[in-house]
């Protein structure tokens, strides 16, 4: 059974020969570039600067030799673009705080503020105010909020739609080439084109725009879902139209090469609760997700990947109704997210992708033995009957001990050898 066949079997909620494993298939199932470098060194792989394939979170590229060493079954196929609106191309060396040399795109042109914090600028244009910040002793970037005073009478939904545009044909050509390479290697292809998630707070501040208009402050945006609901609804409605047009073109360019589409990273859960009620979700988000998933399932064979951190058990019935085939990251430490209960209630209708180990406490701070034990417990809970792809709960963060990362991947190898 190839890696692709293994993933598709699991997504059909049948038992594959072994539990499939993802690392780096999406921007929410990856690993900080410093950990990728450390892992490559531990495994004795060719030492060279690692590409930062997602700059905001500073995620490292998972190359084929590392995939082979760890038994990874997936491949990411995404647009060659960054959160700041410049292409992922023309790679050059850059030294991170702490001294690690990595590779970054050619238009990565950070500046420093008085504190030594690293500032990122839209389109790499240092003539405009920065839109991202990495603390001088930090490991990833946060958005800088750039919010003009809000004139309620002048609010125009088009202002919150400026960043949603047709995908360039050249991007599809790059994606197709990557998908063909992944298919030749026998891996499952996970595609992402961006612009298909509604109200994702990582994107609301619009870091790629030089002068963003509309509602760009995160707190204002959350309040707007209650206080300016018709405005937000119109934004989502038009965004869905643009997204479907891009999905149509993606399908025409390479539809038969795609196994999974990473559709949305909007979080609806917190550690203990949720960002909105079920009623609000159904009123404000549901119709627009339904437009996208309905088009996908009517025109393609793609499986739809939904990411939402936190306590989201109450939303899972709606996710299933909408045609989301996959739920990630399965944050088992959040309220109501017990692995055995999730599998019992929903395991016959949705695939759990993630949940393999807690990345807030266990993986970074526990012992390798504790990591192994937790990973094996999660596998025991989620793997029976298929419908599970092994990955951590969200990205593996900087300063995670490499011994713990090894223990995590050795645990799934141990589980697969015993079953």
Describe this structure in words.
The structure is a single chain. Helix content is 36%, strand content 12%. By secondary structure, it is of the alpha/beta class. β1 and β2 form a beta hairpin. It has twelve helices and 15 strands. It is globular and about 65 Å long. The protein has a single domain, classed as TIM Barrel, CATH 3.20.20. Strands 3-10-11-12-13-14-15 form a seven-stranded parallel sheet. A four-stranded antiparallel sheet has the order 6-7-8-9, with no helix packed on it.
- Helix tally? 12
Major sheet details: 7 strands, parallel
Strand content: 5-15%
Distance between the termini: 15 Å
Percent of residues in helices comes to 25-40%
Mean pLDDT: 97
Number of domains: 1
Order of adjacent strands in the largest pleated sheet: 3-10-11-12-13-14-15
Can you summarize this structure?
With 419 residues, this protein is of the alpha/beta class. It contains twelve helices and 15 strands. The protein has a seven-stranded parallel beta sheet. Strands 6-7-8-9 form a four-stranded antiparallel beta sheet, with no helix packed on it.
Give the arrangement of secondary structure elements.
Layout: H1 3-11, H2 33-42, E1 52-54, E2 59-60, H3 64-70, E3 74-78, E4 92-95, E5 101-104, E6 111-112, E7 118-120, E8 132-134, E9 142-143, H4 169-184, E10 188-192, H5 218-227, H6 229-254, E11 260-264, H7 278-299, E12 303-307, H8 316-322, E13 326-328, H9 339-346, E14 351-353, H10 362-365, H11 368-382, E15 388-389, H12 402-418
Parallel strand pairs: 3-10, 10-11, 11-12, 12-13, 13-14, 14-15
Antiparallel strand pairs: 1-2, 4-5, 6-7, 7-8, 8-9
Helix pairs in contact: 4-6, 5-6, 6-7, 11-12
